[in-house]
Structure formats: C-alpha cells, structure tokens
Amino acid sequence: GGQTLPDNCPNWQDPRTAGGTPNLAAHSGIGPNRATWSWNAAAAVFALGYTTLAELGYKYVGADQLVGGTWPDNEPAVSALDWQTGEPNAKYWAVHLLATTVGTAAPKTIVHSVVANTNSSGRSSSDVDPSRVHVMAYIMAGAKGIVLVNQQQISQNLTLNGVRSGTATVIEVATSGPRASEPGFGPPVVRSVSSDGALTLGPFGIA
Q: What secondary structure, in 3-state letters, does 132-156 show?
C-alpha cells in the first residue's frame, strides 16, 4: 500500500495479487508502493556495489531486472519500472546514470579518495558520517569525475576538496515539493556545486 514504511507486504506468490490476469498493463492487480523510500535505498545499494566492485577491478557489473510485477512474474520489489505504467524509478535512474558516465567503454583510472569529517578550518565536524558516504573519483578521456553515494536516510552536506564549481546529476529522496509523495519515482535533478565545492545529497542520494 501507499505507506512510507508499510506494516507488511503482499504475498507475491499468491495468484490473487495479479487481479485475475497476468497482463500487468491492465492495472487489475496490486500496483507498486510509490510512497516508500525503498526504491531509493535499493538504488543507493546498487550504486555502492557498483563502485565497490569497480574499485576491486571488476570490469562488468549488471543489474536485474528491468521490470518485475505481480504473480506469475518475478519478485516485484526488484523492478526498475512501475509494472503498471512503465514509469522508471530510482533504481532505473541509478543504472542509467552510471551507464552513461563512468560505465561507458572508455578507458578510465580510478583515483584513491578519502572521506573525512572536518569543517572549513580542518577540525573534526559532526556534519558528515564518513563511513556512510562512499566516494569514487576517476579520470576518463582527460576529464575528472566523481561518483558519490549517501548511504543514510538523512541528507549529507559535503565539501569536495579541489572542486571549484560545476554541476552534479543527483538521484535522491524528494522530501519536499511535488515528488515528495512518490520519492522513488522522481527523475534526477541537476544541482550546482558551489565555488568552494559544497554539495548537498538528500537521503540515499547518488551523484
């Protein structure tokens, strides 16, 4: 149902979840929970796994599956699309973002990065939990890029040392605005990086 944290989930092995027809587009069965943050959490998990495997030297990382649905289909919770409308969710956009940036076939070099919890004076700060932000910097075709993953359900205020302005494509939980009621189905947003490298990532944000 349409709850951020539902009390329980349907039994997807029960044929009744299909509403009497295997045609997902008929809208006869149970639709996805579009209110939950779970789509964003799953997207962040995939981005974290992707970057971790890349750092370990893996060359190919895939994601399953594009569309799942109610019985007799596969487990609907892994779907990257709304199985009734075809609208992409955060999982789809995460795969798309990675595939069209660092995931291309162009040769690239991954650069060692350090996440530190410091303020502008270099002293310890409580703004960011370093263990919950994953950073993978890389160089590709002479250009520098960074993949950021916020593993927490709260926003993180980051400062990217050495970065002076720019833009970031961000996938995150929308906590306000027209998409707040369906946070997992909002498209990516383009956000400016300030002149001192400041960037805010929302809950389970990927950039």
A: HEEEEEEEECCEEEEEEEECCCCCE
Give the 3-state secondary structure percentages of the chain, helix then strand then coil, rounded to 5: 20, 20, 55
78 Cβ contact partners less than 8 Å away, ≥ 6 residues apart: 42, 64, 65, 68, 91
Helices 38-55/90-100 angle, 10° precision? 30
Q: What is the average pLDDT score of the chain?
A: 88
Quote the pLDDT of residue 41.
96
How far apart (Å, rounded) are the C-alpha atoms in residues 64 and 74?
11
What pTM was estimated for this model as a whole?
0.89
| Nearest residue to 200 (alpha-carbon basis) of 132, 161, 154 | 154
